[in-house]
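Blinded run. Sample ID left blank on purpose so nobody reads anything into the name before looking at the predicted structure. Input follows.
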Amino acid sequence: MTRLPEQHWMTSAPTRRLFAALEAVGGPDCARFVGGCVRNTLMGRAADDVDVATKLTPDQTLKALTDANIRAVPTGIEHGTVTAVIDHIPYEVTSLRRDVETDGRRAVVAFSTDWAEDAQRRDFRLNALYADLQGEVFDPVGGGIEDALEGRIVFVGDPETRLREDHLRNLRFFRFFAWYGSGEPDPAGLAACRKLREGLRSLSAERISKELIKLLSAPDPVATVRLMASAAILEQFLPDGLNLDRFAAMVAITPDPVLRLSALLPDDPTTVGAVADSLRLSNADRDRLLDALPSAPPVHLDLKPAEARAGIYQLGTSAFEDRVRRAWAEAPARSDAAKALLGLAKAWPKPRFPLGGADVMALGVPAGPRLGMLLREVETWWIAHDFPAEGARERLVALIGEAR
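Blinded prediction complete.
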């Protein structure tokens, strides 16, 4: 028998209260921990979320929680999931189920009371693990405990069948390998992903981008991304011209998944914008990808301090730092120069331009295009002279005098 070492999330008062509420309706062994919390604990890693599987139907789960005065949110009730919130801690409680119909994107399910039936519909054996409140681990499909301990990502049953049920499992195979895998990937799983790779095109952009960002957030996804490129997975949703070497360098520089994606993509803004749109990335992430590209004002690792300050002022600190890291990924050996520029960006308080429209009008210039032109000319002079504390007003007076 395999037993989890005692964890706070297993013994905490909110967890005990949740299990008591479910067992009050369904009796003993009507609920078990499932999935990531069990897998991660076996692997000696922190559990990010605590998910619970139950023999209760969704309606019974809602009643059990309501009767126990536990907040219940029907977050995915058509698929059996109710979120219980206790002391601000969310628990996803999902009814045991079996697939009735699948089309590669979504499933119609029927609810069950059979742990083994529920396990058979899960993606990988190390995710089909359950544990009771005392920590005893149950492995209905077999091999899941060993997979977790040895870092193997193996589909439950036939890999092609699992992929045809939901093509997102193709990306999940690589994401889980990047996070939890050790050694070589499972040959049967890799072959199935390669064979059915075009099924990824049937998925929504939001599902692909969410999985991709999780994959790129892994501590070291370089080998996995190279494997995906060789298996023609990446080309299903990313353009030609990917820069795998720059990506590898960026992984060593930062854990930021958006910057890692930036390093992977070509330098062409049209292509980058199209990728951001096709993946339905947020406006903030789209802007970051575009702002990180080489363009005016130029950012390179040979910038002098005054040039760097001008770049920070014009681009903003975040965009400047992104460009420095991208330049660093192009020249990994020049870490000292990159770190110096990043240190300058962090330490330098961006000054405020000391003049405004009222200053120009006070000198006799009426509101209009000329006012804005004069301000821009003075600001350009001010930036070029490394943001002097004094002299901007004198420069403005001189420009007005020259115009007269």
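Unblinding after everyone has recorded impressions. Residues 245 and 263 are 9 Å apart (CA to CA).
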